[in-house]
Design a protein that fits this description.
Blueprint (H helix, E strand, L loop, with lengths): L18 H11 L4 H10 L4 H9 L18 H13 L9 H12 L2 H13 L4 E5 L15 E5 L2 E9 L9 E7 L13 E7 H4 L4 E5 L9 E11 L3 E2 L5 H37 L1 E2 L2 E2 L4 H29 L5 H25 L11 H9 L8 H12 L7
Parallel strand pairs: 1-4
Antiparallel strand pairs: 2-3, 3-7, 4-5, 5-8, 6-7, 9-10
The structure holds flavin-adenine dinucleotide.
Flavin-adenine dinucleotide binds next to β1 and α12.
Amino acid sequence: MKQNTIPDSIQVAAGEDYTEIRESIRSICANFPGKYWRDLEEKEAYPTEFVKTLTEAGYLAALIPEQYGGSGMQLRAAAAILEEIHANGCNAGACHAQMYIMGTLLRHGSEVQKSLYLPQIASGALRLQAFGVTEPTTGTDTTKLKTKAVRVGDHYIVNGQKVWTSRALHSDLMLLLARTTPLEEVKKKSEGLSVFLIDIRECLGKGLEIKPLKAMINHNATEVFFSDVKIPASSLIGEEGKGLKYILDGMNAERILVSAEAIGDARWFIKKTVEYANERIVFDRPIGKNQGIAFPIARAYAETEAADLVLRRAAALFAANLPCADDANMGKLLASEASWRAAEACIQTHGGFGFAREYDVERKWRETRLFQIAPISTNLVLSYIAEHILELPRTY
Ligand SMILES: Cc1cc2nc3c(=O)[nH]c(=O)nc-3n(C[C@H](O)[C@H](O)[C@H](O)COP(=O)(O)OP(=O)(O)OC[C@H]3O[C@@H](n4cnc5c(N)ncnc54)[C@H](O)[C@@H]3O)c2cc1C
């Protein structure tokens, strides 16, 4: 079993950090109450106003370095932004991808690509919200994905299909993972995949088709079809064949950021549950007096705090450029389960009213269930812990 190698220099503080940022997010969220999100869901619409407000306030460019027009904040600051959005009843799923997708461009893109795109992404002139990895027939077995990009002169021709590509209808650019060398011709199956930054606007109607995918939550999911889509060779990020490595490089940041949203949800559920448990009188006493009501909330609170600490440690390791995959994965597992535990306590405490749309409990309950499936499912995180931390045999 691997030794814990976290250096003493990694200090993790508890309690509220980035207070000014959080206060600013709270005041933004106050203008986007539950009714805003309920109305959007009824129309399956995109939260354009909310995303515009966050963009104009500079929060979606938090991780873009100052030289490219962003604010060059630490990952932990970005996590605090996302956590606070969720803790205040809103949902960052409409725009969070911009924060972590951008990392692939930043770390592996050429200077030409970075200077062309990053300032425009930072200003909101271009939206980089779509991330095309998952495919209908191959699922989590990413190296078997079937979307192909074949080099022809100064272009690539792309054919294939993606599924669950969130926000593709509300994005100008898409980061696409496609196979450039057939699986049979590579030494390692992780080789031969490449990442492309595709201009959706240029390709729509020229072989690229995007169809909305109706889902349990309003996540603007889509299916994306590529039929002989011609993209310039300059769309390639980094070196051909190394795309999976680039995507994996970004996954720790993605896990930390998305888990912060789960922590935010957990905080929203716990606050809402405590208020209701104190207010609701049944059998002449507040329902919170019953241990059957109080204990699940207490458990969810403790689990949320534990998950938060592991995630803070992951973010501190990330900031120190130290390996953080163990904590990012464990934090993801714990946060997704803490938010679900809090959601369950909340809906149960609300009794029948938990089902009433106007309470927002059922909406948040549906929304927070996603964290156990995406961006990576619980079993795959457990497999990571078993294999990479406990050094058990690989399970797949
Ligand atoms: C709302 C939503 C938004 C999404 N947005 C995006 C997006 O923007 N871009 C994108 O690329 N993808 C996106 N996804 C896809 C998401 O990342 C995948 O659904 C998720 O990674 C699981 O993959 P899968 O659905 O193919 O499940 P599968 O890989 O088919 O797995 C199904 C189940 O089997 C389990 N399983 C599979 N193999 C093993 C194993 N070896 N051991 C144990 N258990 C196993 C899994 O844990 C899972 O529970 C989104 C999904 C949803 C629902």
